[in-house]
Please model this.
Amino acid sequence: MPVKNRFAELLPEITAWRHDFHENPELLFEVHRTAAKVAELCRSFGCDEVVEGIGRTGVVAVIKGRTDTSGKVVGLRADMDALPIMEQTGLDYASKTPGKMHACGHDGHTAMLLGAAKYLAETRNFDGTVVCLFQPAEEGGGGGREMVADGVMDRWNVGEVYGMHNWPGLPVGQFAIRPGPLMAAADQFEIVVTGRGGHAAKPHETIDPMVISAQIILGLQSIASRIVDPVKQVVVSVTTMQTDSPAHNVIPQVVVMKGTVRTFEPAVRDEAERRMGQIISGIAASFGATGELHYHRGYPATVNAEENTGYAIDVAAAISGPGAVQEAALQMGAEDFSFMLEARPGAYIFLGNGNTAGVHHPAYNFDDNAIPFGASWYAGMAESRMPVG
Model:
């Protein structure tokens, strides 16, 4: 199962779709133009069912195989949304919307799945049903959660689900994956420290929330260094600090800090949240202040099922050769395909994007040379998991 010849033939067409998406980026759930074009193309391919508005603005395209004796349904997912970044690529097809750009390659993901959908609708060389999931709002909006909550898995009886993301630094034509945890859970927090403000020249008359906040920031680092088992991963980062102080000579009354927690295991996630609350309230109380933690759980960890990871590796190796499939390193970044993997077994794989700028960088661009490999992998997952005969 090398790169399918059909995708070499379709490459100019798929590339044109990708460039159109790149020129017209849309954010979060506001992917109305993108979703409409995806739906229009899927109908033109002859997909058996195309449904819009799943998970608010997601699109589902259903393709039935030439037979259905297996009763299997395989889901293939691509994300559609862009980022609020000013593009600096200088491309002929650069974003036409200032302040928005496809800086994570979702335009490439969508185009590759569309290419696979066209091929699968033409050939139908599988025994079962393929459900193509075009998802909005991966970049912080939780579109995967919304599609699952909207019943996408149950409505189309999806039994297993697969997703892909391009990876700068990995050569084009290569893949990377690992079983078990692959990408971290991403939680957000807000800490409110309330002391007693006053004149900066008379600190003894105040309860200085700035000093207390500094102690809290240092104390939170003990979660990784002294509380959680050192062979398990956890990151606690305070990233912003704001006060109600209007001037350089005023000690504030209140300090508000925000940040993120990254973990892979549910028990570590629970422990981090619990110990944060203890550290914050304890340090604040020791100074005569109060400290409040507002903790919001975001995307869960992206965890690949071991068996399904094996299937994904087999297809990738058939396309590019066994030596072109690497074991991926654990990533502290997050991905809301995790919600789909919580709902159904499956796997998430990285596809080489070559020596490009990193994702979320204003000079990033998806490498169109990766399209035949990614589209072949999407199509190959359907055909290998539901072979005819």
User: Anything to note?
Assistant: DSSP finds eleven helices and 16 strands in the chain. The chain has a mean pLDDT of 97.
